[in-house]
Amino acid sequence: MKVLLAHKFFKYNGGADVFFFEVGRVLKENGHEVAFFSTEDPDNLKSDYSKYFVKSPNFNEGNIFHKAKEFVKIPYNFEARRKFSKLIDDFKPDIIHVFNIITHISPSILDVAHKKKIPVIISCNDYKHICPNYKLFHHGKICEDCKGGKYYKCIANKCSHDSYLYSSASAVESYIHNFLNIYKKNIDLFLFASDFMAYKTVEFWGDEFKWGKLLNPFKIPNISISEIKGEYGLYFGRLIDEKGVDILIEALKLNKDIPFKIVGDGPDLEQLKQFAKENDLDHIEFPGAIWGTQLEEIIRDSKFVVVPSIWHENFPYVILQAFAAAKPVIGSNRGGIPELVVDNERGVVYDANSPVELAKKIKLFYENDDLCFRLGKNARKFVEDNFNDSVFYEQLMINYKKVLK
After folding, report:
1. Which of 101, 208, 215, 321 is exposed most, by the fewest CB atoms within 10 A?
2. Are 372 and 328 in contact (CB under 8 A)?
3. Class of 233-386 in CATH
4. Which helix (H) or strand (E) holds 211?
5. CA distance 71 to 337
6. For 2-125+181-217+388-404, which CATH class?
7. What pTM was estimated for this model as a whole?
8. What was the pLDDT predicted at 61?
């Protein structure tokens, strides 16, 4: 089988990019021919297909006329359509699997695939197909104002980058895609990693589309489960408002005897550090952004991990990283988080808006080594059973065959 994969980045920026590259790796290791379509970038990984890659819109340079020209590419990029058509003609794929293509590439490539009668599957890692700003969240709160095609609400709420300009572009993009029926007309199967995202899409669209389930791939590090007790609680990830780290710090104000590390970087870092300083929260450490083996060591030496998101996270990789190190997770009741954690199986779930409830869970875990070890052991077994390459490949083929037949 020849598979063409398309995604907005050909470098590692986050979980969605890991998903894209891991699908390619697993397919190639199982004997399939794989081609890639993405955007140009000097930091890209090497690819035999880079000559087909397209320039993504650039809004940071040039005058107002240049920016206006770049914004026009967002809803429908004709250059991407042309180059994608050339790649299809040269590679002749049996199936096309797209990931995050909105804005940087645009759904124009879906029209090409439909015209050439090649089945298309899309893996949805965010809510862009139903929400102009892709999060169902803005200014600290969950938002579904655009349900029913009311995309003008995006402009009224300034929900994209807190900017009328970006919000207007996002709203126009959604109106055009809705008018062209570009998703449901051109995509044969939608894949979701969480039931939450699938059923939320049904809420917005009804049941006039086909969908399946595919858990994101995850390469499990080869470590042994140790009975060494962790020394601290841990958060690691982006420091931005939707991640709920401010609520986590409020909870830690009620647990000043519990050491805690907040690992990561982002626009809220300095604000969070200042708050901790003003409130004498000396038990909280901010080591900054840490990656690779050093991060694995920090996770391994922790007692538990907190995922305090206040937006509807779809499938946070940080949970799998914690599970792989046999660490239980205290997770908020948002999005797909409860599906992964499962209350009292691989961690505990709490009300995302309640720092008091979170504080109680943190105290419970810190004072109960046996509970942490038992739930952590369950967590490690969960990733071993569900996230090895053979299980992922089997599920991938099940979904591919749904459209190939």
Report:
1. 208
2. yes
3. alpha beta
4. strand 211-213
5. 34
6. alpha beta
7. 0.90
8. 61
